[in-house]
Fold this protein.
Amino acid sequence: MDRASYLRKLHFRAHHRGTREADAIVGGFFDNYHAQWTDADFSWFEALLEEQDVDIMGWAMRTLPVPAKWEGPMLDLLMRLDYISLPSGLTKAD
């Protein structure tokens, strides 16, 4: 598979998780960081896509303990949550 097709496939999988929240976390993470990933980072991300959304969101929001196999710099970036943008019309509650 050529690089462009591979990136389109990952983009689609990252943005079509099943819930808006998971789409925002996983898709936003991919959009923000994938340009600087190594092959090992892409392998890590593909494995992450196989995990349940509730687990990924829990790890990202620090509400679930992170299994040792996911600990490291990639998950640290995911946990920053600085890549999420709210859909227009939504604002933070005061």
About this structure: The mean pLDDT is 91. The radius of gyration is 13 Å. The CA atoms of residues 29 and 83 lie 6 Å apart.
